[in-house]
Write a structure and sequence with these properties.
about 400 residues, 16 helices, globular, disordered C terminus
Length: about 400
């Protein structure tokens, strides 16, 4: 487990890690406040779902194009621009809310603008971390990023609740804007340990996007990991599936629902540490085995007749699913050729979280038919896809072999 903290030996990554906890917590604080604002404005949960869909739609549509852009610009400067843009959008929302001028259509517009920035930020962030820590420490860095996300799921709503109760909705957005500033300051200071690969010419971009998609299609390991990432969005869409499962299948109240959801995070943290502690590049077989464990634990959780079994099952789901997604992410990054890493990670982002609007809609439709089906559908689909990708996940990625050389 000590290997999980290998990337933190680099003082630059230590500062980056702390800044990401703050920034991710600010994002969650803002999400809590916006959901509360929309419910106060319209009283309809569908409006919250639409805002979420607008946030991820640009990544679903333009993920490869965003990744291709990352490959031909200075990643550090691009991240500086995205963080400044995020801060400006959050500050503008805070000002409109404080002044009483906010309207629902404005929230839709802000969601779309944030989504456009997010589509660029996601592949750039992953490429920057790769350049910051290098391939030897990438496994640790990706696993610890999952720790960041799960820590923010606890810290963000807690801060949001306090700010909502004391100073109001606008202060949550202002807090979110402020949390991007430390990351922006670090980007002015931090430099990668090694020189980044040469950037590609803009004129070749359409051809390179086609080449990147062809590479993923030809490499069975890359394709399997990205397809599994897309369907795993149904497992991670807890806000869609768990409310109905907790209330209708387990007959829990609000407190029980909150505890049931928290069980996922309880398992996710050790799962992230397990992913971070992997020695060297993860084997495709590990992704295969983790996908099997994730799908079976989801199915077991949705079928359990008692609440205690469902609570325990949710801990196991969190453990294996986070370990799976961090391991698959690391494998894809290491398999990507140096000059196409941004493009490949843009394709990854298109799958997860870009497919979240689609997988969330599918899970929600299933949950309306049966609360147990809504939770279990992701596990069932993952099991079917795993059966199709089982032989591929016994191979070494062709792209990784090409990059590694003799």
């Amino acid at each position: 487990m000590l290997r999980a903290f290998e990337s933190l030996r680099d003082p630059r990554y230590r500062w980056w890690f702390l800044a990401q906890i703050l920034s991710a917590s600010g994002t969650m604080t803002s999400a809590v406040a916006q959901s509360w604002l929309v419910l106060n404005m319209t009283g309809r949960a569908v409006d919250i779902a639409l805002i979420t869909a607008l946030m991820f739609l640009p990544t679903l549509i333009a993920g490869p194009w965003a990744g291709a852009l990352v490959d031909r610009v200075d990643v550090r400067r691009l991240l500086l621009a995205t963080n400044v843009a995020f801060a400006a959008l959050a500050a503008a929302q805070a000002g409109l809310i404080a002044g009483g001028g906010i309207r629902l259509w404005m929230l839709y517009a802000f969601a779309a603008l944030n989504g456009a920035v997010f589509a660029l930020d996601q592949p750039a962030r992953q490429v920057y971390v790769f350049e910051l820590v290098g391939p030897a420490r990438l496994t640790s860095a990706v696993g610890l990023y999952e720790v960041v996300l799960n820590a923010s799921r606890a810290l963000g709503p807690a801060v949001g609740g306090v700010l909502l109760a004391t100073t109001g909705i606008a202060s949550c957005l202002a807090f979110n804007a402020a949390t991007y500033l430390p990351t922006a300051a670090l980007l002015l200071w931090l430099r990668p340990a090694a020189a980044p690969p040469p950037r590609t010419a803009p004129a070749r971009e359409p051809r390179r996007i086609g080449a990147g998609l062809a590479l993923v299609r030809r490499d069975p390991v890359l394709l399997s990991c990205i397809v599994l990432a897309a369907v795993s969005g149904m497992v991670f869409n807890l806000a869609v599936t768990t409310p109905l499962f907790a209330t209708r299948a387990l007959h829990l109240g609000g407190g029980g629902y909150g505890a049931f959801t928290a069980c996922f995070g309880l398992g996710a943290l050790p799962g992230a540490f397990m992913a971070a502690s992997t020695n060297g590049a993860p084997a495709p077989r590990l992704v295969r085995n983790l996908a099997l464990a994730t799908s079976l634990s989801v199915l077991a959780t949705c079928l359990t007749p008692v609440a205690a079994g469902a609570f325990a099952g949710m801990v196991v789901v969190g453990f294996f699913s986070i370990w799976l997604i961090a391991t698959a992410n690391t494998l894809v990054q290491l398999a990507a050729p140096a000059g196409m890493r941004g493009l490949i990670m843009g394709i990854w982002a298109m799958a997860l979280p870009g497919c979240n609007p689609l997988t969330g809609l599918l899970a929600g439709a299933a949950a309306q038919v049966s609360a147990r089906a809504g939770l279990g559908l992701g596990g069932g689909l993952m099991l079917l896809l795993l059966a199709a990708t089982w032989p591929a996940l016994s191979r070494r990625p062709a792209a990784a072999a090409a990059v590694a050389g003799p």
